[in-house]
Specification:
With 185 residues, this protein is of the alpha+beta class. The chain has one domain. Helices cover 33% and strands 20% of the residues. Strands 1-2-3-4 form a four-stranded antiparallel sheet. It has a three-stranded antiparallel sheet with strand order 5-6-7, with no helix packed on it. A hairpin with a 2-residue loop joins β6 and β7.
Length: 185
């Protein structure tokens, strides 16, 4: 629960306590793999430990980091390469999708690899590992939500024309900022 009206929060807490067993855990620090840190600059969220656990689980703790989550103009397509363990691939893509909640820098790469969950191949798994190498380069990256003195809403969009090698479909991207803070992508 969060808010700026202390009296209303106290009243709601008492009301909830009548119906449910609740406990005040203090200020949020960690929830579902998301770390929350407060400072004078604002609220910072990241998934550092989640990334380190994922690197350990995949045996990539000692891998060489890369500076980008995907090579420029890298195209993936279906049916190319040797089949890989579908269940493992789907689990790794799912973990990457969860990571994109605090890492918008991997959102595009993750959206590409998620298109091949029905029939993953070697190049698709290699792309997953490339994203992990990129995450290793800065596991503590995240999002900072700061007070910028306004609540302006800004939106940006981009698209590639017929970028999919399989279906010749276009891919579009967008991001929305509220008060100068990234909130959707």
């Amino acid at each position: 629960m969060t808010g700026d009206d202390k009296e209303e929060m106290t009243r709601l807490t008492k009301l909830l306590a009548q119906e449910l067993e609740i406990k005040d855990l203090g200020k949020l620090q960690y929830f579902l793999g998301i770390e929350v840190a407060r400072s004078n600059r604002g609220i910072f969220i990241s998934q550092r430990n989640y990334i380190l656990d994922l690197l350990k689980e995949t045996g990539m703790t000692s891998c060489k980091p890369t500076e980008s989550s995907m090579e420029s103009n890298h195209k993936l397509q279906s049916g190319v390469g040797k089949s890989v363990d579908k269940e493992r691939y789907q689990r790794l893509v799912g973990r990457h999708i969860y990571l994109s909640h605090t890492r918008p820098d991997i959102a595009y790469s993750v959206s590409l690899v998620s298109q091949f969950m029905h029939d993953p191949r070697d190049p698709h798994m290699e792309a997953i590992f490339r994203i992990l190498q990129y995450l290793k380069s800065a596991p503590g990256k995240g999002l900072l939500f700061s007070r910028n003195g306004h609540l302006n809403i800004e939106a940006f969009t981009d698209a590639n024309w017929a970028g999919s090698l399989d279906e010749r479909r276009s891919t579009s991207d967008y991001c929305t900022l509220v008060g100068g803070n990234l909130v959707t992508w």
